[in-house]
Amino acid sequence: xxxxxIVGTPIGNLEDITLRALRVLRETDIILCEDTRVTxxxxxxxxxSGKQLLAYNEQKSGASAERVIExxxxxxxxxxVTDAGTPGISDPGSMLVQKVRExxxxxxxxxxxxxxxxxxxxSVAGVSADSFLFLGFLPHKKGRETLFKEIxxxxxxxxxxxxxxxxxxxxxxLQKYAPEKQxxxxxxxTKIHEEVVRGSASEVLEYFRNNSEKVRGEFVxxxxx
Length: 225
Fold this sequence. Notes:
The protein is of the alpha/beta class and 225 residues long. It folds into two domains: 3-112, Cobalt-precorrin-4 Transmethylase, domain 1 (3-Layer(aba) Sandwich); 117-224, Tetrapyrrole methylase, C-terminal domain (Methyltransferase, Cobalt-precorrin-4 Transmethylase, Domain 2, 2-Layer Sandwich). It is built from eight helices and ten strands. The chain has a five-stranded parallel β-sheet, sandwiched between helices. A five-stranded mixed β-sheet has the order 6-7-10-8-9, with helices on both faces. Strand 2 (30-33), helix 2 and strand 3 (52-55) form a beta-alpha-beta unit.
């Protein structure tokens, strides 16, 4: 029986990988990658060689879910990784898992837990996260302002991802609709320039306006009461 492994990989610091993940990557027949160049760097660090790497992305060209299903039917064990973090959590993977479950009832789909920017941010934000709402990446245009109004009304902690191109606009919207909320920005988690900035939307916005060189990298935004 073939297996499909969903493998979490580091979100920045390459040391953040589990022994189990390394074993699976060494033993599996094929590794599906969001970007083969990124995965090669991880494999090179841990001296894993001779692996067949296939690009897989649910929105772009690359191996299709149908092709993956064919490989599993041929008995090939496959590991799915993304550039950073856990597949299926705001990254490719959920559609593939769904289709494999629908078509191949005998294939084992196994989670190899690993890093996630979501849980990493909550662990250092200093907020009560017994219950929270995760929104992933917010829409670029349609419904974006409506969503910020809903965030302002939400009683739970809200977490979302944002790019450096839109983080300032996101903070401006939070300043407009949720001025009383506490905002925690986690930037470049696990990397050399990791930073956590906390305050009202106005305070955080002012900080990044005064430190424009820091408006880069990966952002996790935590909104709390």
